[in-house]
Design brief:
alpha/beta, Dihydrodipicolinate Reductase, domain 2, about 30% helix, 13 strands, Rossmann fold, six-stranded parallel beta sheet, about 350 residues, seven-stranded mixed beta sheet, about 20% strand
């Protein structure tokens, strides 16, 4: 029996991890940690889990928990884990972190984009970036898993095969991505109130969004040289979902069949990545509540550009279910255990 703890269990991502793990094979959710709701029964915080999770929220430190569990999921804000994690904790249990604290290998870039001093840079080197379909072999044995964000997962997987094969100009990629409001977290913020978000759409973090260096770094690894790209996120009035539309200059003259063959070569054996039929474009409603990523493309003969499209559920493949997918790889479970959900429509 694998014993798990979740720190930040009353945020949206933490709650999704709890919901998935509670029915997971041979896994016990031992600790649900939340300072804000300490002492309250978890099912009173999330009514969907009434008579499913009968456990109190606890206020216990990472260090205290480490000796009594096999894995800790940290669904916490940027800066928390890198401020408290020590090698001695990793000697006791494995960590799956939902923040950006260990995603970026260059500590100077992390500190610049996040405006936070990194307090455990010596651990960055051993952290594995948890994009399962790309880094599966490295994920198996890691003690420290940096789970990717929602925009990054969608943006990277949509462009990865063509970047890997040098079929697009590496510095021509422009990504426009839409996110549901749950991506901003569960905290009370005026800009996320219903009346502020409903019947509106807006760009934000223009030229400054913190997922930019993460996407650039991972696509640079794919290409084998430094990649510079333009990333602009948008907030739209829906609960869940990411839709990325990416434009790049083709590096040669390629037909639809040639591009499709590359996507199929990379993703045909990947259960959770679906390459759609010709002229069928990804929609967030067709991945909602699932671990799937839908991708497709269209070549623009007029401009020599290719339009790449991807969609996922930001709370699932963009956060919680991808974390459980990585958990499955790390502990030798079937990769789809606990996350083989069919998308919900409507």
């Amino acid at each position: 029996m694998i014993r798990a703890g979740i720190i930040g269990s009353t945020g949206y991502a933490g709650a999704e991890i709890a919901r998935l793990l509670i029915k997971h094979k041979d896994t016990e959710v031992k600790w649900l940690v939340s300072r804000s709701f300490a002492g309250q029964n978890y099912q009173d915080v999330f009514g969907n889990l009434f008579e499913i999770i009968d456990k109190e929220c606890a206020d216990i430190s990472l260090d205290e928990m480490a000796g009594g569990v096999d894995v800790i999921f940290t669904a916490t804000p940027q800066g928390y884990l890198q401020g408290v994690l020590k090698k001695e904790i990793l000697d006791k249990c494995r960590i799956i972190d939902m923040s950006a604290d260990y995603r970026i290998k260059d500590v100077d870039i992390y500190e610049k984009w996040y405006g936070i001093k990194h307090n455990s840079p010596e651990l960055i080197k051993e952290a594995v970036y948890g994009l399962t379909e790309v880094n599966r072999d490295s994920i198996r044995n890691t003690r420290l898993l940096a789970n990717p964000g929602c925009f990054t997962t969608c943006s990277i997987l949509t462009a990865y095969p063509l970047m890997k094969e040098h079929m697009i100009d590496r510095n021509s990629l422009v990504i426009n991505a839409l996110s549901g409001v749950s991506g901003a977290g569960r905290g009370a913020k005026v800009q996320n109130l219903f009346c502020e978000v409903n019947e509106s759409a807006k760009a934000y973090g223009v030229t400054t969004h913190r997922h930019t260096p993460e996407i650039e770094e991972q696509l640079s690894y794919a290409y084998g040289e430094s990649v510079t790209l333009q990333f602009t996120p948008h907030l739209i009035p829906m609960h869940r979902g990411i839709l990325a539309t990416e434009t790049a200059k083709l590096a040669g003259s390629y037909s639809y069949d040639e591009i499709k063959a590359v996507y199929d070569r990379y993703y045909a054996s990947e259960k959770f990545i679906r390459v759609l039929k010709k002229d069928v474009y990804p929609e967030t409603r067709y991945v909602e509540g699932s671990n799937y990523v839908d991708v497709n493309f269209r070549i623009d003969e007029r401009t020599g550009n290719i339009i790449l499209m991807g969609a996922l559920d930001n709370l699932e493949k963009g956060a919680a279910s991808q974390a459980v997918q990585n958990f499955n790889v790390m502990f030798g479970f079937d990769e789809g255990e606990g996350i083989d959900m069919i998308p919900m429509v409507p």
